[in-house]
């Protein structure tokens, strides 16, 4: 053995030869304090003087520990002549192996490269994934914008063609609204609006848009008018009486093309359909149109698409307040273009290139999922070994904080975004290959958007290896529990203001018409948005209501802007100051981190982490499943592995 081993062993033997005072005798009798070194004593020792705490072992440099390294970087077992009296040399050897194994586990990719030349596969995969996923998202966002813009423009065109009285001012969403609701107020307007839509559909060839009927010979298809009525709904207002049965009955009539000659009102009378507006809940007029989109803004790589628009006109009379709201909706369905299709393009490989990109994203996400899931599983196995090691060597359970050190929440987040990206890429491929006829653009964008968001969040893990950026991450982590508790109290006050404002101001203020709009208004006021308009748009129906609104708004704004937000910022600043103090005075250590100890640059380059230890034991599929689903139980049966060198996970197994 080396001279360093001899010196360390001599120091330990001198420690063992010191006289045992009265306090140590009491400790031997079981009255030692919970924080004493005897709490971590090895079960192999028989005397207090011969026990070695992991705190002392932690403070011993790696180059002078019981297991020295040879010229090839392999750790040698200590000779029996240098061991402590009553302490097995195998126990010291296994403790040092476990410490180095854990030290390597908690290294970042840069340190692992310095210690063992381990290539950072997961880091490279994440960088490649960011590039590919961002390219995929940009292409899909451009295509989705063109698709949504195309369907919206067609909806505006249909409104001009089929809605009687439609005005261009309704196409611009303004706040506050510049026009009132688009509604009908007379019975004749109901039938005139339907006649106007039928005439527009019959003379669709006058439209600028390339619209056709959904029939094989391009003849006008019948329209369908559906009436939703109460079974009984007769009102006698002169004597305050009524006959009412709330059961809804549905009556649908097919409107032929020749109905324009007589009008829809007389046609319904001939069919025996009586339209009673006192019992009418709503009505719909449904018809379809086919068209082809040449994609002027799609570029030379985009082939034309064929669509079918299912148009529905809604007549909403549910409130029975003398105002029947009118609206139009158009659902686009992509069709497979057939017949005389001749698409001339200089770039015929657009679909192939997009498919290749989608396939690469799928493969990279699957690889990322496999690597992160494998890392989590191996961390779980190492956690079980560490728990059993603490039980066998120190007669104590590993603390909850120590167990939590093995759970990498970054990997969990990466696995989640991999699943989202895999689903989104599969949907995107089906949309671009036109395998889906339903409109799945929104679903696909949801998967790809959230997945890309989490991918960029995952980069913070690697920025956390640098002190400047890690301060932000640690501050958020430190402040998260306090912020959550603070928000619970703040939300209770917020909910009280929201319900109160909705109840009292709802009938008289447009921003408080519903609970959702009330919450949106209050949140905007917290951020100082649109304050004057909120005060100015209050109805002056009653003096007491005006005074209540003033007190209500002033008290809410003052409380949340000057008190709640200031306290919220102070909570975060307190966490930031705590993290800065930790950087100055040292971070609090769990029992696991105390056992692992610190490492220096010399340790990383000395070759002590290059030794070839035993790999994970080869387990059957049933054993693997048992370990995965029994996630919280590390069986004592594995504790026997702590007594011999072959039972420990090697550095090689962690690297794999």
Task: Tell me about this structure.
The protein is of the alpha+beta class and 656 residues long. Among the domains are: 120-142 and 347-465; 163-336, no CATH class; 473-596, Helix Hairpins. The chain is 52% helix and 11% strand. It has helices at residues 3-16, 22-31, 54-59, 89-105, 109-116, 121-162, 187-202, 264-270, 350-394, 400-404, 409-432, 441-463, 467-505, 515-526, 531-536, 543-585, 591-596, 601-605, 621-629, 651-655; strands at 183-184, 223-236, 241-255, 280-293, 305-316, 324-335. The radius of gyration is 37 Å and the shape is extended. The two termini are 31 Å apart. Mean pLDDT is 77; it is low at 1-84, 612-621 and 636-656. It is found in: Cell membrane; Endosome membrane.
Summarize the helix and strand pattern as letters.
HHHHHHEHEEHEEEHHHHHHHHHHHH
Helix content: 40-55%
Distance between the termini: 31 Å
Number of strands: 6
The number of distinct helices, counting runs of at least 4 residues, comes to 20
In order across it, which strands form the biggest sheet? 1-6-5-4-2-3
- Can you tell me the residue ranges where pLDDT is under 50 for at least 5 consecutive residues? 1-84, 612-621, 636-656
Domain Polycystin cation channel PKD1/PKD2: 449-579
Organism: Musca domestica (House fly)
Pfam family, one: MCLN_ECD
Region (Disordered): 1-46
């Amino acid at each position: 053995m080396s001279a360093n081993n001899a010196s360390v062993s001599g120091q330990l033997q001198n420690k063992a030869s010191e006289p045992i005072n009265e306090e140590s005798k009491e400790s031997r009798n079981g009255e030692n304090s919970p924080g004493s070194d005897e709490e971590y004593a090895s079960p192999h020792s028989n005397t207090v003087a011969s026990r070695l705490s992991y705190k002392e072992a932690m403070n011993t440099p790696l180059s002078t520990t019981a297991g020295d390294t040879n010229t090839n970087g392999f750790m040698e077992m200590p000779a029996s002549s240098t061991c402590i009296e009553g302490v097995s040399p195998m126990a010291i050897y296994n403790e040092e192996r476990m410490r180095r194994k854990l030290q390597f586990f908690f290294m970042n990719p840069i340190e692992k490269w310095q210690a063992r030349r381990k290539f950072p596969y997961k880091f490279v995969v994440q960088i490649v994934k960011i590039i590919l996923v961002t390219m995929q998202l940009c292409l899909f966002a451009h295509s989705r914008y063109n698709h949504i813009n195309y369907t919206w423009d067609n909806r505006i065109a249909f409104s001009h063609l089929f809605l009687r009285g439609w005005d261009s001012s309704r196409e611009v969403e303004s706040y506050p609204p510049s026009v009132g609701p688009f509604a009908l107020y007379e019975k004749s307007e109901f039938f005139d609006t339907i006649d106007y839509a039928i005439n527009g559909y019959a003379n669709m060839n006058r439209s600028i848009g390339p619209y056709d009927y959904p029939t094989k010979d391009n003849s006008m298809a019948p329209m369908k008018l559906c009436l939703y009525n109460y079974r009984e709904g007769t009102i006698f207002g002169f004597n305050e009486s009524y006959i009412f049965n709330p059961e809804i009955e549905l009556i649908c009539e097919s409107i032929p093309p020749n109905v324009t000659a007589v009008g829809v009102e007389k046609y319904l009378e001939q069919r025996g359909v009586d339209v009673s507006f006192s019992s009418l809940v709503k009505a719909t007029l449904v018809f379809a149109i086919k068209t082809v989109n040449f994609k002027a803004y799609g570029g030379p790589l985009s082939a034309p698409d064929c669509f079918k628009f299912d148009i529905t006109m809604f007549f909403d009379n549910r409130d029975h307040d003398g105002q029947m709201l009118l609206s139009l909706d158009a659902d686009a369905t992509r069709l497979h273009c057939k017949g005389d299709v001749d698409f001339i393009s200089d770039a015929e490989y657009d679909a192939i290139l997009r498919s290749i990109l989608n396939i690469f994203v799928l493969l990279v996400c699957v690889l990322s999922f496999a690597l992160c899931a494998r890392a989590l599983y191996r961390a779980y196995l190492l956690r079980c070994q560490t728990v059993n090691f603490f039980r066998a060597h120190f007669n104590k359970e590993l603390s909850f904080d120590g167990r939590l050190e093995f759970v990498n929440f970054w990997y969990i987040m990466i696995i989640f975004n991999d699943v989202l990206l895999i689903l989104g890429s599969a949907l995107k491929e089906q949309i671009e290959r036109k395998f889906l006829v339903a409109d799945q653009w929104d679903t696909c964008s949801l998967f790809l958007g959230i997945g890309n968001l989490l991918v960029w969040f995952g980069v913070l893990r690697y920025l956390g290896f640098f002190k400047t950026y890690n301060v932000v991450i640690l501050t958020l982590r430190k402040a998260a529990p306090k912020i959550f508790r603070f928000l619970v109290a703040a939300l209770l006050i917020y909910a009280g203001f929201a319900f109160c404002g909705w109840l009292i101001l709802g009938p008289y203020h447009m921003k408080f018409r519903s609970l959702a709009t009330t919450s949106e208004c209050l949140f905007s006021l917290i951020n100082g948005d649109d304050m004057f308009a909120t005060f100015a748009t209050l109805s002056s129906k009653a003096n007491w209501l005006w005074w209540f609104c003033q007190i209500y708004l002033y008290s809410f704004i003052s409380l949340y802007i000057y008190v709640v937000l200031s306290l919220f910022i102070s909570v975060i600043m307190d966490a930031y100051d705590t993290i800065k103090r930790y950087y100055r005075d040292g971070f609090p250590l769990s029992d696991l981190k105390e056992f692992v100890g610190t490492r220096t640059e010399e340790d990383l380059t000395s070759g002590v982490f290059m030794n070839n230890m035993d790999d994970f034991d080869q387990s059957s599929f049933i054993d693997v499943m048992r370990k995965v689903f029994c996630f919280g139980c590390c069986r004592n049966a594995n504790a026997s592995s702590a007594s011999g060198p072959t039972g420990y996970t090697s550095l090689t197994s962690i690297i794999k």
